[in-house]
Specification:
single chain, about 240 residues, alpha/beta, Rossmann fold, eight-stranded mixed beta sheet, about 35% helix, about 20% strand, globular
């Protein structure tokens, strides 16, 4: 099994196809892992592997990836994993495709290493709305409680600090509106439409980011072939020659 190990952190990943690289950040909240792509409206490990080198990963403490838990963990911790995996694979520049929480991971990678991201597809971006913060807290708590017996290095107070660092923020949680205004990376936003992925969040990203395309209708079965074609052409158009 392909694993990248960095100290006590072990990141599981899989590769599909060949060509210009795309790093995937899966849906699934804190349980973001490769298996969620098969349950998504389309599976980029299948649909994009004909034209690209597609790298899918399990986030730390999800799927087959493992890492210690710390009260100082947060979005920056995940971004460090993502950049380290690219370094391990010898990838200097790539596209990103993130679903759900993966859209916020994509913003984190762009913030940490903007020159290494050539374009990004944000599918169902998560974001804060007037009544959904408790949904994200509950999702985190369920994940954390399942891990707690095997992680004596962190207590309940530390887990709350970690949770607040992930989900006490505004907008897309990971970065601010002011940051998104500065993102010149080409973005394609496949609009969200539920409590975890508010439509208003997708619309606001599209308004703020100077080089963003919003796709409103994309996920019903009859539209998926068209969506896959549109995503593929967008990514091809921004792949360095």
């Amino acid at each position: 099994m392909p694993k990248f190990e960095r100290g006590a952190v072990s990141i599981y990943y899989e590769e599909f196809g060949s060509g210009y690289p795309i790093l995937l950040f899966a849906p699934g909240g804190m349980r973001s892992s490769i298996e969620f792509w098969a349950k998504s409206p389309f599976d980029p490990t299948v649909e994009l592997a004909k034209d690209f080198r597609v790298i899918a990963m399990d986030q730390r403490n999800a799927g087959k990836s493992r890492a210690p838990l710390s009260r100082t963990d947060g979005w920056h911790t995940y971004a460090a994993d993502h950049i380290a995996l690219l370094d391990h694979l010898g990838i200097s520049r790539c596209h990103l495709l993130g679903g759900c929480i993966g859209s916020s991971y994509a913003f984190g990678a762009i913030k940490q290493a903007p020159s290494r991201v050539s374009a990004a597809v944000l599918q169902n971006p998560i974001g804060l709305s007037s009544n959904n913060r408790e949904l994200f807290f509950a999702m985190f708590d369920g994940w954390a409680q399942a891990l707690k017996p095997s992680h004596p290095e962190i207590d309940d107070g530390g887990l709350r600090e970690f949770r607040d660092r992930m989900y006490a923020g505004e907008f897309v949680f990971n970065v601010s509106r002011d940051f998104v205004r500065t993102v010149t990376t080409p973005l394609m936003i496949l609009m969200g439409s539920d409590d975890y992925h508010p439509t208003a969040t997708s619309e606001e990203i599209a308004r703020l980011a100077p080089n963003a395309t919003l796709v409103r209708d994309w996920k019903t079965p009859e539209l998926i072939p068209q969506t896959v074609t549109r995503v593929r052409e967008f990514l091809k158009s921004h792949a360095p020659s």
